Amino acid sequence: MILAVASGKGGTGKTSISVNLARVLDFPVQLLDCDVEEPNAHLFLHGSLIGEEEISIAVPKIDATACNACDECVDFCQFNALASFCGAPLVFPELCHGCGGCTLVCSRSAISEENFRIGVVKTFVDGHITLKSGCLDVGVSLASALVHSVKDRLEKGVTAILDAPPGTACPAVATLRGADYVVLVTEPTPFGLHDLKLAVDTVRELYLPFGVVINRVGIGDDRVQRFCSEASIPLLLEIPDDRRIAEAYSRGELIVETLPEYRAHFERLWQAITLHAGARS
Amino acid sequence: MKLAFTTSGENLESKLDPSFGRTKNFLIFDLERQTSTLISNQQNLDAAQGAGIQAAQTIVKAGAQALITGHCGPKAFRVLEAAGVKVYNTEAATIAEALARYQAGELTAAKVANVEGHWA
């Protein structure tokens, strides 16, 4: 089972849901922090760092003596990572997506590839939880490529929870693809509902089964509940707006450890997920 | 010598667009002939990334030896510098005003980009 925890709006509680859910499971689980632009799941675990891998992509390196300035590579690049001005092209590795197309279209074999570091994937172990955390280097825009690197490290056959980046752009889609089930976390506010609708459109486009968790119930209104009901979207869990949860979070503590009365909420959430995911598969 | 200006309009009296990579048009002004030609930058308005780099190539290929605009980021600056195109930043309201300032020697060539890249 690969479960992705996503949201439209940021700050709704994706990481809280992911880490607390991982904690209440009584079997080995992989937790993947795919929010590579600001990974934070590790802050809530007490485990130790057992590995760190550098992640690079292959970017073009141009041999100016072999280049005849035909611009085939520049015309091919859809990401504007190559610039020509009547000589050998300039390379902007921070814009390159590492597709290798420029190397293929070069008729003079003037392009070789070199590694360009985009970030790291760290591995932490805390009891039955193995956390793989992607961390994009500052100034690099290739979040999706690093998300793929994190997911490449999934161990097959072991339950996985993927903490997605907020929004519905490429890094979120890269996280969602291949998931067996998606939990969309939102809050009962107009903003939460607006962005939930975008997230719902996205997971529907990807043909992924999904349900909704509403966090901080009590701060807004019931429009999210009504939307889910009218759209026949399973409402998996509602977490009340409890100041103690925010306080625990701010100290880097798990809700299910600091406030054990919430443990049953997350156990029920897992039951609901397996029920819905099983019913659909 | 040819000068490149950024503009949303079509002639010397038009406004100078402060942005380079995603300006609507480039007006290339030939100082010797006192003639101008307009180049559309439409393809870059919707570019997901690298608009400045593309815009820099456009004006290099148009034969401009200087760019007069509001702002120029680091990647576009790198292309222009490599191609030997000088960059002049100005807050002039119109192309005509920017041209007058340039000809009066009031503008100095930038040594570095004057704004951050959008991905930095």
List strands and helices in order, with pairings.
The complex is a heterodimer of chains A (281) and B (120).
Chain A: E1 2-6, H1 14-24, E2 29-33, E3 48-62, H2 72-76, E4 82-83, E5 90-91, H3 101-105, E6 111-126, E7 129-136, H4 143-152, E8 160-163, H5 170-176, E9 181-186, H6 190-205, E10 210-217, H7 223-230, E11 235-240, H8 243-250, H9 255-258, H10 263-280
Chain B: E1 2-7, E2 25-30, E3 35-40, H1 42-45, H2 51-61, E4 66-69, H3 74-82, E5 86-89, H4 95-103
Give your account of this protein's structure:
- The complex is a heterodimer of chains A (281) and B (120).
- Chain A has helices spanning 14-24, 72-76, 101-105, 143-152, 170-176, 190-205, 223-230, 243-250, 255-258, 263-280, and strands at 2-6, 29-33, 48-62, 82-83, 90-91, 111-126, 129-136, 160-163, 181-186, 210-217, 235-240.
- The mean pLDDT of chain A is 95.
- Chain A has a nine-stranded mixed sheet with strand order 3-6-7-2-8-1-9-10-11, sandwiched between helices. In chain A, strands 4-5 form a two-stranded antiparallel ribbon.
- By secondary structure, chain A is α/β, with parallel strands linked by helices.
- In chain A, 33% of the residues lie in helices and 27% in strands.
- The radius of gyration of chain A is 22 Å and the shape is elongated.
- In chain B, strands 3-2-1-4-5 form a five-stranded mixed sheet, with helices on both faces.
- In chain B, β2 (25-30) and β3 (35-40) form a beta hairpin.
- By secondary structure, chain B is an alpha/beta fold.
- Chain B is globular and about 35 Å long.
- In chain B, 28% of the residues lie in helices and 22% in strands.
- Chain B contains four helices and five strands, in the order βββααβαβα.
- Chain B starts with a strand and ends in a 17-residue tail after the last helix.
- Classes of the chains: A alpha/beta (281), B alpha/beta (120).
- At the A-B interface, loops of A face α2 and α3 of B.
